[in-house]
Amino acid sequence: MNNNKEYIYKFVNINKDLLSIGNCKFSSRLMLGTGKYRTLDEAQNSILSSKCEIVTFAVRRAQNAKSNQQANLLSMLDWKKLWLLPNTAGCQTVEEAIRIAFLGREITRELGQVNNNFIKLEVIPDPTYLLPDPIATLKAAEYLCHKGFTVLPYINADPILAKQMEEVGCAAVMPLGSPIGTGQGIKTLSNIKIIIENLNVPVIIDAGIGTSSDAAQAMELGASAILVNTCIARAKSSVAMAQSIQLAVQAGRLAYLAGRTEETLQARSSSPEVGISKLYTKQSYSIDL
Q: What gap in Å lies between CA 125 and CA 137, rounded to an integer?
């Protein structure tokens, strides 16, 4: 090493790279859903394997806790280590979503999270493709923000709508990568890039993640976090996939912070070009072909 030169290395401590949503901070940038698992044990072990800190849960299913597997999972998790993100899945109107949001806040209180005002807002009248209603979601988001909720709206990857969500007070936005449960990966790449560039609140990619490479790609774009359910719950080994996604999120985040090399059309040599000719012209070589 040339002692006349100063070498500066910038290390990123991934454990101190915190995700801020509202007034809360989290060390993990992976959020997990709780539906579609084959067994309760598989769901619990997948959540542990993922090392996530935020778990989302459909409030509607909690209303039938005695007979519903997903609702029973609530009693199996350690809510001193996990943060509940109630969601309004299944709601088709503004009024319905608002009512379910208030029920969700009551559930967080019952679990001892008295300061938890988080709500994942979903208003989905489309039964085939499960695409969110932009107008209804915006109306519900504005109302809930005024009522003290920390609102995370699930939206289409629409940069204008995302900015409007921020302007009415949403703590984050959750644009879809592709339709819910399809595992198609990120099909809304260009729009998500614009959303990330234009917003000052966290952008969390929700829906469509199919495997770890999709998760890494989302984080490399500069997304603040991702929310995953189907690709883990329906994997042949949910626990292994949960760990895979967790590692991909960390790798993608580090790659984003590191900053990738610029892309060029022409090839560029990795070996030094200066001084090579001088080195080999000091003596002659005879080569027989």
A: 11
List the domain boundaries for the chain: 28-256
Nearest-angstrom CA–CA distance, 152 and 84: 13
Q: May I ask the CATH architecture of the domain 28-256? A: Alpha-Beta Barrel (3.20)
Average pLDDT, the chain: 88
Token pair in block for residue 198: 């234009």
> Out of 118-127, 191-200, 233-242, 279-288, which region has the weakest mean confidence (pLDDT)?
279-288
Task: Could you list the beta-strand ranges (E) of 202-284.
Answer: 204-206, 225-228
> Cα separation of 107 and 113, whole Å?
9
Tokens 């260009």 identify what position? 190
Q: Which helix (H) or strand (E) holds 153?
A: strand 150-155
Could you tell me the CA-to-CA distances from 179 to 5, 25, 28, 59, 131 in Å, in that order?
52, 28, 24, 21, 7
Report the predicted TM-score, pTM, of the whole model to 2 decimal places.
0.86
Q: Which listed residue (5, 36, 80, 120) is catalytic? A: 120
Residue pLDDT, tens place only, 160-215: 999 999 999 999 999 999 988 888 889 999 999 999 999 999 999 998 899 999 99
Query: So what's the pLDDT on residue 2?
Result: 46
* 120: annotated active-site residue: yes
Phi first, then psi, for residue 141 (nearest 5°) are -65, -45
Residue located via tokens 């999120």:
249
User: Is 1 strand, coil or helix?
Assistant: coil
